[in-house]
Amino acid sequence: MDISIIIPAKDEEESIPELCTWITRVMASHGFSYEVIFIDDGSSDGTWAEIKKVNQANPSFKGFQFNRNFGKSAALHTGFKAAEGEVVITMDADLQDSPDEIPELYKLIKDQKFQLVSGWKKKRHDPISKTLPSKFFNYVTRKISGIYLHDFNCGLKAYHHSVIKNITVYGEMHRYIPVLAKWAGFTKITEKVVEHRERKYGVSKFGWERFVRGFLDLLTITFVGRFAQRPMHFFGAWGIVSFLIGFGFTLKIFWDKLDSLFISKIPLKREVVEQPIFYLALVALVIGVQLFLTGFIAELLARQSVSKKNYLVIEKVGLD
């Protein structure tokens, strides 16, 4: 099969028939073998009924129905597991992504051998309350990940099938699929300017809380990607820093005490345990030891997971 198209949908009953007609026309005009997988993410309208109608008319259109709203990442993860196409396309169900972009995305994967192509909505039809935060998070993600894409969160993307079969998308991680792909070793990533259309039906599902969750997920994916296999490099380094600070404070306390007893013989204004530096030293030493032990335990757990891990092999020769 040439192409699998994965489309998360929530309360998009009005868009489904028009979108399916459009996709069918594009696929037929280019002679692609294809499947379209809808994921009804807990819709409260007739979205699922429309998906079933489309399936009856054309079995290439398939679908999953969630019993409640689990989010876009869960929908994509479900679609990725079911996809059978050599090239996998993801897009939104609201008609703001154009199916006419699919043939060029397919060529970038199939002919130019890119592993992931991210759409870039260079001209957007969204309110400023959505575009400005999006630009900020795209900038931060570029700096942290080292992947220079303009629009990480564009729903219109293309993947080689080996990418989607070897990454796990959860939480709000759909925003950072290029980052997940890079950490998994898929570095042939590019972007393509795509058409962004005005919403024709329904209302946007956008909410400010998504940016908070998205930013926290960015921190998570950055930490896990860099330190999952070597947690001691993070916890141990900061543990040593904290311990050395505490040790320095401790030496200062001892020196002041010795000075008051044997050198200057000037009594201390306050006893050692009454000085703020004593508590700073104590806290820094304890935190340093805890961080170091945390890194040590995490290192043991990481080594156990590595011993059980099947490393990603995307091609074989002479082996079953």
Poorly predicted segments: none
> Shape from CA axes?
elongated
Mean pLDDT: 85
H/E element order:
EHEHEHEHEHEHHEHHH
Q: Kindly report the CATH topology of the largest domain.
A: Spore Coat Polysaccharide Biosynthesis Protein SpsA, Chain A
Describe this structure in words.
- 50% of the residues lie in helices and 12% in strands.
- It is of the alpha/beta class and 320 residues long.
- It has two domains: 3-227, Spore Coat Polysaccharide Biosynthesis Protein SpsA, Chain A; 231-308.
- Strands 3-2-1-4-6-5-7 form a seven-stranded mixed sheet, sandwiched between helices.
- The protein starts with a strand and ends in a 12-residue tail after the last helix.
Outline:
The chain is α/β, with parallel strands linked by helices and 320 residues long. It is 50% helix and 12% strand.
For the structure shown, list the relevant keywords.
320 residues; Spore Coat Polysaccharide Biosynthesis Protein SpsA, Chain A; 2 domains; seven-stranded mixed β-sheet
Task: Give the helix/strand layout.
Blueprint: E1 3-9, H1 15-30, E2 34-40, H2 47-57, E3 61-65, H3 72-82, E4 87-90, H4 102-110, E5 116-120, H5 128-145, E6 157-160, H6 161-164, H7 177-183, E7 189-193, H8 209-227, H9 231-263, H10 276-308
Parallel strand pairs: 1-2, 1-4, 2-3, 5-7
Antiparallel strand pairs: 4-6, 5-6
Helix pairs in contact: 5-8, 9-10
